[in-house]
Amino acid sequence: MTYFADLTPYTYLERHDEDGHGASDELLLNVGWLDASHPFPTGASPDELMPALMNLATVRVRQTRGYHYCEICILDMGDDAMEAIRQGTIARESAEFEVRGEGFVYAAPQLLLHYLAAHEYLPPAEFCTAALGATS
Ligand SMILES: [Zn+2]
Which positions fall inside the DUF7919 domain (predicted)? Predict the structure, then answer.
């Protein structure tokens, strides 16, 4: 998958102009674009975060044709990874979801839920706050 540092302006797919603004002129920020070669923050997230994100992630945006696979799982599996990909047992996704924050919209891959559940990824605090606020 393509790596982007958390909270950098979103530039991956369309729906942005040269300044990284979305169609609604809100700045799109990357969250959760992990790969196996960049360290990422880990830690315990609030209990309410996962259900809130699962709810937000039901709105799939920017669906792509191919799959993004979890590079961290692939690295962990080593020589067995290709077989696991063939069998469909490596976590994979093909869309993004958005979380509305204060003056920003966070653009996250659907795989963020897997990173949180399987790899203890801890998203930026403002993203967590926005996600939790969106459900109340
Ligand atoms: Zn994984």
Answer: 2-131
